[in-house]
Amino acid sequence: MANNIGLYGGTGNTVTNNLLQDTVTRGGGINIGNRYNPTPLAGTTTISGNTLVRTGQFDPGWDYGVGAIWFWPQNQSQDGTVNISDNQIDDSPYEAFQFQNSAPPVGSAVNTAGSSGNTVTNVNLTDNTVNGVGTYVLQDQAPGSVSISGLVASNVGVAGVMDCGSGLDITQGSGNSGWSTTTCGMPSGWPLIAYPSTTTFEQATVGTATPVQKITVMNSGSAPSTLGTISASSGFTVTNDPSQPCGSSLDATSPTDSGNWCQVDVSFTAPASGITTGTLTVPSDQPGSPTVLQLVGSTGGTNVITPPTLSPTALSFGDEAVGSSTTAQTVTLANPGASAITIGSIATNNSSYTQTNTCGSTLAAGASCAIAVTFAPTAGGAQSATLAVTNSGTSTPIGATLSGTGVTPTTNLAAGAALTASSSTSGFPPSNANDGNTSSYWESVDGTFPQWLQADLGSTRRWARSRWTCRRPPPGPPGPRH
Questions:
Q1: What is the rounded CA–CA span in Å between residue 399 and residue 167?
Q2: Is the peptide bond before 290 cis (omega within 30 degrees of 0)?
Q3: Counting beta carbons within 10 angstroms of the beta carbon of residue 208, is it exposed (0 to 12), middle (13 to 18) or buried (19 or more)?
Q4: In a 3-state reduction of DSSP, which class is residue 432?
Q5: Of 268, 321, 425, 471, which one has the fewest beta carbons inside 10 Å?
Q6: Do domains 309-407 and 412-482 have the same CATH topology?
């Protein structure tokens, strides 16, 4: 009942390289806001390199979904710089980015405008990828400003932008694609909400049905939804819950009406010893139909479910020239469980990274296989990705993060590197030499030799050439300036 990660004020926050999955309810994947009467957001907030999978969920009090990345200046306007770059948003049930001004009172019409009140400004979205949203790439419900470049979207449910005149000024740079359409208002049809996403039946006896567990189905749209027959795969039995049964339809969502949700009872009868995996399927006339949930059953007190693992969970490829390829690095996929698992897919979400593997479609109990990953950059600059493995042992893919830097003749390897020097004078530290500001510089102590400046590039790098700019110092005490 909250956000995967929440930033409620503060200075210089950083959220980088996280895997966020499956928000439960009433929250987003990452919430950025002046909330709970905070010290206001200030300095530069950095949100970079994160992967958000099925994040952001429906809020029944507001009657609409919350975004994977969600801005809410609840207590006061937000004007601190927020840089959001190189994030991957996959299968968001609702919108990818949400700018919200205020929440509507319970029972009122949805707040689609929010054209007055607190603002959100100085937000920069750069090189983010969106693959799958139930509604919009950007939901505009707050006045303010945002600059967007390199935002690539696919599998968009309703439209690129929901805009009902809130006053959010969107400045588009280069590289945007897949979200050019605009509409106003929330859609009448929404994906069904069904939970829990995975139901586990442990210590079952072969041939005997387990006690039932309840699964809830909810219509989160503003129009009635038609339901088909809810079914379960072999080994699992589904019946209607007597107190709130699922019929042929669900009412539209309303804060005062309980007819928009229903429940089914599911039990497991083990056909044999070991682990059985299956699905519960809920067909409907809503977007994303059918809704599919995972069912897992196991027998015996010691036969517990052990998910597969990846090792290591992060690979760093360092610098590689554009047009060439690194030596392969290996990730090991292991199945420590007592039963075989099925491998659905093994893939990366960035074409600069490729993989080959020895895993096949099934991995036996106690077995492992190798996944070889190479980095062949097609453009300069830092490039991150995720290696994802879908399998029958976990309800969501397991993954490893991948990082590397594409190098061209103009790539500045020293930008952002840690600098040290033989000496420095007060106010002119070594870090001035690569801070991106041409008006600042490093100054060594006059009369001390040798004088040197060193950049720690983190690993062995190929040296092509260096260029030094020496400026004549302004009038004042003498001293070398570089």
A1: 39
A2: yes
A3: exposed
A4: helix
A5: 471
A6: no
What is the layout of strands, in order, in the sheet containing 381-391?
Answer: 314-321, 398-407, 381-391, 341-348, 362-363
Helix ranges (DSSP H) in 348-411: none
* Predicted model pTM: 0.51
Cα pseudo-dihedral 416, 97, 387, 411, rounded to 10: -30
- Does the N-terminal peptide bond of residue 312 adopt cis geometry, omega within 30 degrees of 0? yes
pLDDT tens for each residue of 234-289: 999 999 999 999 999 998 766 556 788 899 999 999 988 888 999 999 999 987 78
Question: What residue type is assigned to position 300 of the chain?
Answer: G
Model confidence at 107, in pLDDT bands (50, 70, 90)?
very low
- Which CATH superfamily groups domain 412-482? Galactose-binding domain-like (2.60.120.260)
Domain boundaries, the chain: 5-183, 193-299, 309-407, 412-482
Burial annotation 100-123 (CB, 10 A radius, 16+ → b, else e) = bbebbeeeeeebbbbeeebbbbbb
- 3-state secondary structure labels for all residues of 355-370: EEECCCCEECCCCEEE
Best CATH choice for the domain 193-299 from the list 1.10.8.100, 2.60.40.10, 2.40.50.140, 3.10.20.30: 2.60.40.10
Distance of alpha carbon 480 from alpha carbon 441, whole angstroms:
11
Distance of alpha carbon 154 from alpha carbon 160, whole angstroms: 10
Structure tokens at 15: 């959220």
Rounded CA-CA distance 274/310 in Å is 23
> Rounded distance, CA 133 to CA 94, Å?
6
Domain 309-407 class in CATH: mainly beta
Residue 69: helix, strand or coil by DSSP?
A: strand
β-partners of residue 343 are 391
Q: What's the pLDDT at 114?
A: 43
